[in-house]
Structure formats: C-alpha cells, structure tokens
Q: What sequence folds into this?
C-alpha cells in the first residue's frame, strides 16, 4: 500500500517537471537576451550614442576579403527579417571583368583592392544594393578571431579523407585556431591538385562553424573589435554600418538565426 501510494506522487512530480523545465529554460534564455540588450544599451548611453533597438528591417551584406598571396573571399549576408546568416565562399579564380578585359578575382584584388573586387562581383552576381566590403590582413583577422578561441569544424562534404590526410588532418570534427585555419586554407588554395570549388567549400566550412558557435558572443564584441582595428582595415563600412551590424547580430543571436554556408557555384 505504501509503495503504491507513492506512484501518484511521482507521476504528478514528473508531469510538473515536464511543464516547468521548458519554462525555466525559456526564462533563462530570455533573461540572457535581455541582459545582453541592457548591457549594450547602457554602454551606448554612457558613450552618448543614441540607442536603437534591433528590428526586423536590419540587414547587411559584406564582401569579406583576407589578403595575402592566397587571398580568400566570402560574401556574408545578414538579414533580420529572414532571421538568417548566409555565407557564400567565392573561389579566388572566379573570372570577373576588369579593365575592359577579364581576370581572376585574386588578380583583381591584387591590382585594385577590395572596392574594385566588390564592383567586379556585382557584374557577375546579383549582389544586394549597398553591399559593403571589408578586407583584413591575416594578422588582423587572427587577432580579432583569436578572442573567441579555436573553432570546432568538420570538413566532411568539402574534402575527401585522402585530401585531408595530405595535410595531416581527418574528417573528424576538430578544433582549429584562426591562424591555423588561414594557413590550411592557403595551402589548399595553392595546391593545384585541389579544385578551386572544393577549396572554397573548405573556407565556407570554417566560416560556417565560426558563425554557428560564436553568434551569441558577436553582438557585444565583433563591432567594437572592428572599430578598434579600423586603422588596419580596408573597408567602406561607416559608423552607421557598424551600428547596423551590431543591431543585426543582436537580433540574429536573440532569435537563434539559421546559418547556411556554401561555395560558389553552390557546391
């Protein structure tokens, strides 16, 4: 009788937990979002900058360029209304119009810089109006990205097991620092045995992993890191663009935005 009497108690307790646990989890998540927003507002208030809350109309498209002998290119499309981050890794060998002729995107970058690359890509791809450009040196990119720690990334779907083995890597998900990731991608890009599309797919995998793992941290840190490094960047991002980036990232982080990455031409 006594053991049987406990059964209704445990059943009621279990039913209560089924209701309370999701509620508590949702409350904690909401509290974190509210705290992040309040901290950002407090910081802006102290600096005298007018406060603007994230909204669904916030969006930003940026051509990200990493300079060097093996330059890398990624189009980042952040859209609050669609609650998404889309990343398109563009092969450096992509043919683009340049000086009444055609050349590779990498040569266009070496000859005329990121602004001309953005202009050339706009003639090849349907870039959204107002697309910005942001170019880093490898050192600056590593300095900005290193604060987030190693990225856990898997290259399944981008590279075969044999291709990865050539560089001492496997298809297992593995932690990789920003500096090591850049070095690895440069090695792939310089290796003529690799298809440019597969190399771009590997780059897409790294950026995809970074955005997925660190999206919650980016609103409060990335815009300020870019502002602090402004003298070392080549960009047409304005102060208003940095504010828009911060708001858009905050909206996307608060709403667990979907992150999708691919390599041109969609492979």
A:
């Amino acid at each position: 009788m006594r053991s049987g009497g406990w059964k209704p108690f445990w059943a009621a307790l279990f039913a209560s937990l089924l209701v309370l646990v999701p509620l508590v989890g949702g409350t904690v998540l909401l509290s974190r979002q509210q705290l992040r927003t309040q901290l950002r507002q407090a910081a802006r208030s102290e600096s005298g900058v007018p406060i603007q809350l994230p909204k669904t109309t916030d969006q930003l498209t940026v051509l990200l360029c990493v300079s060097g002998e093996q330059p890398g290119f990624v189009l980042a499309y952040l859209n609050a209304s669609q609650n998404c981050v889309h990343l398109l890794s563009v092969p450096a060998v992509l043919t683009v119009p340049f000086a009444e002729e055609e050349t590779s995107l990498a040569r266009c970058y070496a000859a005329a810089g990121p602004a001309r690359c953005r202009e050339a890509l706009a003639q090849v791809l349907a870039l959204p109006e107002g697309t910005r450009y942001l170019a880093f040196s490898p050192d600056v990119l590593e300095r900005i990205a290193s604060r987030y720690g190693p990225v856990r990334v898997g290259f399944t779907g981008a590279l075969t097991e044999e291709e990865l083995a050539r560089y001492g890597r496997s298809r297992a998900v593995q932690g990789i620092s920003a500096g090591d990731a850049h070095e690895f991608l440069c090695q792939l890009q310089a290796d003529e045995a690799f298809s440019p599309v597969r190399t771009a797919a590997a780059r897409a995998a790294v950026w995809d992993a970074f955005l997925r793992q660190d999206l919650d941290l980016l609103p409060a840190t990335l815009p300020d890191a870019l502002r602090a490094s402004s003298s070392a960047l080549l960009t047409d991002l304005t102060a208003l663009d940095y504010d828009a980036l911060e708001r858009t990232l905050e909206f996307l982080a608060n709403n667990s935005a979907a992150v999708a990455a691919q390599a041109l031409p969609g492979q």
The first strand starts at residue 59 and ends at 66. Residues 24-31 have pLDDT under 50 and may be disordered. The CA atoms of residues 146 and 178 lie 6 Å apart.
